[in-house]
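task queued by scheduler; priority normal; single chain, no ligands, no partner chains; default sampling; output format set to structure tokens
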Amino acid sequence: MRMDSPAPPELFPEESLLTVNAVLAEVTCNWDEAEGHLAGTTDAVVVHTAHGVLVLEASDPKLVLPPVGAPFAITGMHDEPLFGRLAEHGRGGRFLVSVGDRPVRRSARLRVALPGALRAASVPTPLPVEIVDLTTGGARVRGVELPVGSEATLEFTPPGRAEAVSVRAVVVHGTHLADKPWVGVRFRLVAMRGGR
């Protein structure tokens, strides 16, 4: 079947609309109010497409985007808008949108109880913490409170490994003045110490 020929809806899911000819297309992104962040809009350029995701670059590289998970509507690529959710913030105005019903979290969550050490700008010496949820993309960490957007380094030994890993992460949510504080972090860079 040719990609430019129409297909029955059941054989043509939304993410299959993300064809190579969409790269460098100019689009408009709109989002609703989410987690205290006001509704907004931005013009952007499609930098990359993949199965169910778009990498976009906003016209304003200093644009403050809503939190991960916020619903997005993207117009300008096709006759009908594409709907999805903000999946990740990048640098220089770039961001990732998960299109259609594809979930933002793509990794299975593993319940764990792993000791670790966390460092951040406000935590210059390693702080003992406990990792209680773990995926390939992030973790929930007990024993610390940090503002959303804070960068941190987390060191721990994953299940099934003998060597520790050092992970650069960013705080995406957490408690505020809680008796049992915790943060949710998204991993940005993982450094293996003992090879694979």
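post-processing summary
- Residues 1-21 have pLDDT under 50 and may be disordered.
- The first strand starts at residue 26 and ends at 31.
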